[in-house]
């Protein structure tokens, strides 16, 4: 998906920062597509992995563009000030228009039973997004949130000895330096 418009917004510091970000994201997009293509053309098990990834990430990917324009608090102002050049819904539609043919080309099925090409509008029509899921994830109540927090706390607790050892080493070094300064005086 073309991310260059992010580099052309009216807010200079953001536009300049987006040049590097967009280059990096463009690389990630190409890399992701190449990985999915390799999996989709691999063994049956690999194709299943690719389809599973698409199934899991399709809806969250559409949600990442933000709420519908009618429900986006600052979208109108950002568009008026030309900070944003495309609305959330326009960006989401561009993503769908670019991604569906890619998925079809590598033999994957987009997990939306209502996905249809509209010859009149030349756009894909799709199912409504489950915004309740989006709001739950943003509020920290996503399906994996408890697991992530538990794993993070476990890792933090397991690393306590490293922090304690580093503090003990720093204290010992400070004591040695203080003794050296006293001896030099």
Characterise the protein shown here:
This protein is mainly alpha-helical. The protein is 65% helix and 3% strand. It is built from seven helices and two strands. The protein has a two-stranded antiparallel ribbon. Helix 1 packs antiparallel against helix 2. The longest helix is centred in the N-terminal third of the chain and has 29 residues, at 12-40. The N and C termini lie far apart (67 Å).
Quick overview:
This protein has 185 residues and is mainly alpha-helical. The protein has helices at residues 12-40, 44-63, 75-80, 88-105, 131-138, 145-158, 160-184, and strands at 116-118, 123-125.
What key attributes describe this structure?
185 residues; two-stranded antiparallel ribbon; 7 helices; 2 strands; 65% helix; 3% strand
Helix-strand makeup class: mainly alpha
Number of helices: 7
Spatially, the strands of the biggest sheet line up as 1-2
Total number of β-strand segments? 2
- The whole-angstrom Rg is 24 Å
Proportion in helices: 55-70%
Give the helices and strands as they follow along the chain.
HHHHEEHHH
Task: Write the SSE topology.
Layout: H1 12-40, H2 44-63, H3 75-80, H4 88-105, E1 116-118, E2 123-125, H5 131-138, H6 145-158, H7 160-184
Antiparallel strand pairs: 1-2
Helix pairs in contact: 1-2
